[in-house]
Amino acid sequence: MPRLLPALADTPDRPALRFGDRALTYGELASAAAPLASRLDGSARVAVWATPTLETAVGVVAALLAGVAAVPVNPKSGDSELGHIVADSAPDAVLAAPGTELPPALAALARIDIDVRVDPGPPAVLPVEPDDPDTPAFVVYTSGTTGPPKGAVLPRRAVSSTLDALRDAWQWTDRDTLVHGLPLFHVHGLILGIIGPLRRGGSVRHLGRFDTDGVTRELASGATMLFGVPTMYHRIAEALPTDPALAKALSSARLLVSGSAALPVHDHERITAATGQRVVERYGMTETLMNTSVRADGDPRPGTVGVPLPGVELRLAEDDGTTEVPSGDPEAVGEIQVRGPNLFLEYLNRPDATAGAFAPGGWFRTGDMAVRDPDGYVRIIGRKATDLIKSGGYKIGAGEIENALLEHPGVKEAAVKGAPDTDLGERVVAWIVPADAQNPPGAEELADHVAGRLSPHKRPRTVHYLDALPRNDMGKILKRSLPDG
């Protein structure tokens, strides 16, 4: 297949990446990534310590050039989660910025420092990339509703087809400069937010950490696109009434895109009223990359995630998982199922989970419930199950949090689900049956316990204490009987 990032060879003088005051042109990026790619030759997978830095971007580009699957690792992951990811993916090495202190879970791996210094010299000789479109490009770990995260193996065709479909939907060109402050260990921030601009031959300016001042500065100085999650847009909406410079900067953008969870209509309306801009929403998953989007030249229609992207087939299925919901009925609810070149190959080392994720005919079961307007616009109404929490742009499995809570000696039983939150979209809420009712563990103690084992964004923000959890005759916890807390 053609190169994933043709601009590395075609436009050496064009700006490619900027993180703070550190930047690389396409030629410099090629010169930094090509030697690293040669060191990765022969590897199957490499872990990338995915800090929001220039080094992470260079490391991932090198892996793509070498045809080696990159396993982005969240630097905030706890020891249990890191240990699982390392044991499951078995990377041949870990890539990290020089001087970075890595946790014990990565200590046994060969370490390769990512050198972004570029010496003057002839243009870099880029390696020959794999011809097979099913060659794995990434293994991205995603939280399920139970158990530890699963590694979704994403092939090169999924990356190229999604990014090319977004080129069509968003009219994305080499003249665009993207600004965002998203983490680089998941699909949104890394594949869409870094590899996306590089595939187009445009540039990306990463904020390091999201703040409205950074958004103002970059959009006011020539950036044309902004990527964010609803939490970020909520904070923008809150700041707009007293920040005319932010409003002016946003009004100059070509495209504002929100993803990873639904953006509340109220925030849509406040941003539009202050800037004249409509935020575009899209819908995707780790396993599918992007499925739908509101088009840049289409009706923004708050509350919808637009129409299927080019090349993506989408249907709504009845509860039996195979019968299609009648089309054109905006009241008919069904599970979103998709198929196309954007789909993942498998869950690493989990053939059972892989088989269970698909309906007959190669349709991937997303677990998201939706209705469809007569003109094809998709409106997501929630999860088929109650155990996936979307908080601050993250998808969090309740099961792994429950397991972490049950490791605390003061917890006898635990149940976790999401509750609506104006800032985060949903917040993690836990119901606890303490081992000692007279001396229950404190909420802060439990939150720290979960954050230390998993990740800070998975900690419960609210903890309730009960004498017993509601269960059915089979002993299953009845989460729908627990109030939204």
From TrEMBL:
Residues 400-476 form the AMP-binding enzyme C-terminal domain. InterPro entries: AMP-bd_C, AMP-bd_C_sf, AMP-binding_CS, AMP-dep_synth/lig_dom, ANL_N_sf. Residues 9-348 form the AMP-dependent synthetase/ligase domain. Pfam families: AMP-binding, AMP-binding_C. Belongs to the ATP-dependent AMP-binding enzyme family. PANTHER family: ACYL-COA SYNTHETASE, ACYL-COA SYNTHETASE FAMILY MEMBER 3. This is Acyl-CoA synthetase.
